[in-house]
Amino acid sequence: MRIRRFDRRFRGGPWCGDAVTSSLSDFIFWGVGLISEPLSALFQFVPGMSALTWGLFYFAGPLAAVIVRKPGAALFAELIAGVVEAFLGSHWGGLGTILPGLIQGLGSELVFLAVAYKTWNLAVTTLSGAAAGLAGMAVSWVMDYQGYAAGFIIVSFVCSIVSGAIIAGALMWLLLRMIARTGALASLASGQDVSSRA
């Protein structure tokens, strides 16, 4: 496990990258939103298992954080993603995208805060995705699932966390490494870190 010193100075470049990551994520969110019901139907044999697809909505925060490596990157990315998704015309409405984005980003951000923004590896990124999944289901429970059976809620929480860990966490770490190997992140610590391990 490699520990890197963390640069807390503000630089425009990384934050522009964060905003770009958020905006590109939005088009994926928007597309996933259009097919979310058909996707969910594949898992209806066990109520609550449709949450296994929800990691597709959680990845902006962990991905932005491991690329930018700045405090607040995950929270900022998810918030921007929620705002842009609302402007794109999400069928969940403005509050239905912005508030979940904020809460999911907070969940993801807290994991990087817990390691003082010093440890950047597969395990931490996976935990960040899982935390986004926990936060995402928590806000969905409050906003959408009041009165549902306890079994449905428990299965949804477990599946949301697992989906977040795998899709938004582990896969985003692998995606970071793939992007870094192209040289696109050469000016950032994340890209230099991957290059030094190659």
UniProtKB/TrEMBL annotation:
<feature type="transmembrane region" description="Helical">
    <location>
        <begin position="12"/>
        <end position="35"/>
    </location>
</feature>
<keyword id="KW-0812">Transmembrane</keyword>
<protein>
    <submittedName>
        <fullName>ABC transporter permease</fullName>
    </submittedName>
</protein>
<keyword id="KW-0472">Membrane</keyword>
<feature type="transmembrane region" description="Helical">
    <location>
        <begin position="98"/>
        <end position="117"/>
    </location>
</feature>
<dbReference type="Pfam" id="PF09819">
    <property type="entry name" value="ABC_cobalt"/>
</dbReference>
<feature type="transmembrane region" description="Helical">
    <location>
        <begin position="41"/>
        <end position="60"/>
    </location>
</feature>
<feature type="transmembrane region" description="Helical">
    <location>
        <begin position="72"/>
        <end position="92"/>
    </location>
</feature>
<keyword id="KW-1133">Transmembrane helix</keyword>
<feature type="transmembrane region" description="Helical">
    <location>
        <begin position="149"/>
        <end position="176"/>
    </location>
</feature>
<feature type="transmembrane region" description="Helical">
    <location>
        <begin position="124"/>
        <end position="143"/>
    </location>
</feature>
<dbReference type="InterPro" id="IPR017195">
    <property type="entry name" value="ABC_thiamin-permease_prd"/>
</dbReference>
